């Protein structure tokens, strides 16, 4: 039985929108995904019925909020197969999660140490490590990609030495859609004793993630890219590391005891969660994961593969269009350029026809420079994307071509 795209779509109210009389064709899912009604309802219910701070109230609303908030942590822990719930740290998103790891590691990095990233990194996974290296005297090494956007695994392996302290790479590239062989890459990095951080911002919403099976030390992702609210995300990390590292921010919640002279820290996960958290966001993310994990995950992977194959075939046949990024394993992203049109023009002219894509450098300027492109036009798909919407994209691109001529 094929994946029930229409059944899924019916749960996303925004997909009924029209843009200037055209049905909305939302192909900007790598930037953020839309939210199903159950997530929207969960947010409304929280603010309407039990809005309260968590962990510290002596009343019913606080109990209810705390129960739902901590249940969301269990939900995430189960979804990614964490060893323990205290390994799930709430953050504001992938960016903050990576920054927490960098903050923890920065104190341990020394001149002579090395951090390895890849050429396909989002800025969040470059600048953070670049700055940690600059302040510690460690060296940042960048594993190269082929022109296809696939990582050069031999070169990657050659960069790994006994000086490598941390290896950071994306599960899926947001600009090119390249899916990295994260299990094999983790094993290679572990064989030299390095820590491994996976930027899962684009990997989390395309099927199951099992952090224990991957074998990494950290996996970071954002709620808003997997049908949850913005402003909430997850850092999953090994308890043995997170429990030892310096605290990230100080304030309420993360303490055990405070005097004017000193303070001691709470246990995990709270020691890394200072201040009032994004309670509605966390509960909303719990609802999103609960909803997502009940879907036919195998079916949705097949659906997304079929969408990718269909889009790629149409793109190859489209005269004057060049696909940017043709790795053998790709997920959900078609980046492209068109003769005679800057990506920004393509985006503008598609928007006039109700088609939402993203254009520009996709927070990956060094990658754009490496590929010698000014940026790309990027159509990105999700579980609710119809095959007919990809056809609509190419029909609209025909018009764009005509307008650009
Ligand atoms: N890494 C990748 C691969 C991403 O696609 C993104 C979001 N575009 C991020 C990191 C940063 O995520 P956020 O802005 O939600 O923190």
From TrEMBL:
MF (Gene Ontology): transaminase activity
Domain of life per record: Bacteria
Presence of the UniProt keyword Hydrolase in the record: no
EC number: 2.8.1.7
Domain Aminotransferase class V: 25-393
Its biological purpose: Catalyzes the removal of elemental sulfur and selenium atoms from L-cysteine, L-cystine, L-selenocysteine, and L-selenocystine to produce L-alanine.
Protein name: Cysteine desulfurase
Organism: Simiduia curdlanivorans
Organismal lineage: Bacteria, Pseudomonadati, Pseudomonadota, Gammaproteobacteria, Cellvibrionales
């Amino acid at each position: 039985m094929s994946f029930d795209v229409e059944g899924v779509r019916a749960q996303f109210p925004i997909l009924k929108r029209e843009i200037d009389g055209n049905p909305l064709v939302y192909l900007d899912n790598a930037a953020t995904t839309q939210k199903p009604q159950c997530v929207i309802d969960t947010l409304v219910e929280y603010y309407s019925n039990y809005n309260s701070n968590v962990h510290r109230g002596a009343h019913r609303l606080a109990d209810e909020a705390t129960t739902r908030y901590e249940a969301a942590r269990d939900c995430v822990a189960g979804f990614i197969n964490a060893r323990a719930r205290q390994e799930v740290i709430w953050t504001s998103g992938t960016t903050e999660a990576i920054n927490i790891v960098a903050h923890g590691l920065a104190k341990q990095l020394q001149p002579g140490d090395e951090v390895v990233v890849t050429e396909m990194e989002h800025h969040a996974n470059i600048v953070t490590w670049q700055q940690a290296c600059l302040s510690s005297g460690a060296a940042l090494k960048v594993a190269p990609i082929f022109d296809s956007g696939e990582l050069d695994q031999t070169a990657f392996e050659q960069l790994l030495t006994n000086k490598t302290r941390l290896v950071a790479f994306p599960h899926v590239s947001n600009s090119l859609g390249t899916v990295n062989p994260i299990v094999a890459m983790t094993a290679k990095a572990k064989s030299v004793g390095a820590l491994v951080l996976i930027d899962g911002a684009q990997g989390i919403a395309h099927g199951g993630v099992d952090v224990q099976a991957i074998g990494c030390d950290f996996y970071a992702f954002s709620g808003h890219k997997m049908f949850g609210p913005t402003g909430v995300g997850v850092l999953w990390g090994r308890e043995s590391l997170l429990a030892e590292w310096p605290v990230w921010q100080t304030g309420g919640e993360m303490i055990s005891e405070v005097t004017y002279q000193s303070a001691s820290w709470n246990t995990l996960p709270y020691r890394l969660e200072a201040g009032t958290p994004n309670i509605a966001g966390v509960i909303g993310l719990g609802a999103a994961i609960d909803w997502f994990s009940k879907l036919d995950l195998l079916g949705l992977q097949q659906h997304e593969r079929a969408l990718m194959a269909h889009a790629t075939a149409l793109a190859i046949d489209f005269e004057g269009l060049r696909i940017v990024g043709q790795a053998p394993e790709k997920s959900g992203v078609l980046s492209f350029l068109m003769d005679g049109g800057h990506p920004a023009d393509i985006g503008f002219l598609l928007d006039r026809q109700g088609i939402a894509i993203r254009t520009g450098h996709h927070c990956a300027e060094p990658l754009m420079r490496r590929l010698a492109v000014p940026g790309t036009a990027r159509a990105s798909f999700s579980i609710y994307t119809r095959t007919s919407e990809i056809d609509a994209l190419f029909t609209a691109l025909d018009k764009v071509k005509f307008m650009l001529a």
